[in-house]
Amino acid sequence: MSWSRKHLLDLESLSREEIETILNLARNFKMVGERRVKKVPSLTGKTVVNLFIEPSTRTRISFELAAKRLAADVVNFSAESSSLRKGETLKDTAQTLEALNADVIIIRHSASGAAQFLTRCVNASVINAGDGAHEHPTQALLDAFTIIEKIGTLEGKKVSIIGDIAYSRVARSNIWALTKLGASVTLCGPPTLLPSHFTRLGCRLTHNLDEAIEGADVLNLLRIQHERQLRTTFPGIGEYRTLFGISQKKLEKARPDLVIMHPGPINRGVEIDAVTADGPRSVIKEQVTNGIAIRMATLFLVVAASSGNSTHIEDLTAFSSIHKTGPA
Ligand code: CP
Fold first, then answer.
1. Of 146, 151, 191, 228, whose CB neighbour count within 10 A is largest?
2. Looking at the structure, do residues 315 and 268 belong to the same domain, yes or no?
3. What's the pLDDT score for residue 307?
């Protein structure tokens, strides 16, 4: 088993083995995060740029922490105060960052395909931190990591993704990761937000919330993406909450060990009520914490590959045993 990708653009093109390589490495990096000294020298001398042209709290900060824990230099690009506001193109912006010695560019952009486009403009490694409604690969990796941590495996498990599927890059990346790792995926939402072509990705579709909850091991609730929707596709907040919002009452027939997830940010009282979001079944905070380890693993692997070191699993095992013995 090896890793040879210089970029992480999507999960559609990754094999199960490659996904498992990231998850296994992230397990070791999580241990680094639990130590008093939360740093390893893996990316010393490398420069990582967070090129976020859409808002973000969790993804941007956890990429920044991940890079810092790997001892890289980190630059956070602020779109609002950049020359993008003067009309500079994305290509010129990326090439400027590369001229400033960026080794890795992490991009979030409203256009699907922006990360792929960047790979044609620069030699640096590119990581997709969310492109339009296309993919958000590291979110799905941290979601898979959190589920496995909680219930041991995805093989044979039932995961229901509920909400705004049509406009969700999180849904698409989750579908690729979950199905490749052996889970059965049910998608649930209003007909306008759940196009029938999602059956082609191997998912079961339902517009009935009770059906999505019954027998599910995991519910992954998605944010209503008001910024991407046409006004006509959303039923209205009151109607959405009544039909698809998760509350204690709606969970009366759920499995007692049901795990509740949400990638954040939450619209409290719309996708999920506060009692459930903050309750014992919720792993929303664990998802955020696990994002750091997943992003450390991703950064480590793309840098290793771009340095011409196809990273073999034996090297990763050796790497993890070295770092396990670091300062506690
Ligand atoms: N889940 C997620 O991508 O959150 P942010 O938009 O805060 O990064």
1. 146
2. no
3. 87
Q: Are residues 164 and 141 in the same domain?
A: yes
Q: How far is the CA of 24 from the centre of ligand 1 (A)?
A: 23
- The verdict on residue 328 lying in a domain is no
Q: Which residue has the least CA distance to atom 5 on ligand 1?
A: 56
* Rounded-to-integer distance, Cα 10 and Cα 127, Å: 9
We report the CATH number of the domain holding residue 38 as 3.40.50.1370
- Determine which of 97-101, 235-239, 263-267 has the lowest per-residue pLDDT on average: 235-239
Kindly state whether residues 93 and 161 are assigned to the same domain.
no
The string of pLDDT tens digits covering residues 166-225 is 999 999 999 999 999 999 999 999 999 999 999 999 999 999 999 999 999 999 999 887
Residue 95 host element (H or E)? helix 90-99
Q: Would you state the structure tokens that stand for residue 95, as one six-digit string? A: 């090439």
User: By alpha-carbon position, which residue is closest to atom 6 of ligand 1?
Assistant: 56
What domain range is 145 assigned to? Answer: 137-286
Decide if 118 contacts 90 (C-beta within 8 A).
Answer: yes
Say what the pLDDT of residue 2 is.
Answer: 77
Backbone φ and ψ for 73, nearest 5 degrees, come out as -85, 140
pLDDT at 1 (0 to 100): 56
Q: Tell which one of 59, 109, 146 to mutate to probe ligand 1, the residue whose CB is within 8 A of the most ligand atoms.
A: 59
Helix and strand numbers, DSSP H then E, in the chain? 11, 11
Give distance in angstroms: CA of 138 to centre of ligand 1: 10
Residue 320 CB burial class (10 angstroms; 0-12, 13-18, ≥19) = middle
CA distance 134 to 173: 8
| Structural domain contains residue 29 | yes
pLDDT of residue 21: 97
β-pairing verdict for 2-3 and 311-312 = antiparallel
Q: What CA–CA distance (Å, rounded) separates 242 from 96?
A: 49
Residues 254 and 167 occupy one common structural domain: yes
The span from the CA of 43 to the CA of 125, in Å, is 13
State the chain's mean pLDDT as an integer. Answer: 93
Do 23 and 96 reside in the same domain of the chain?
yes
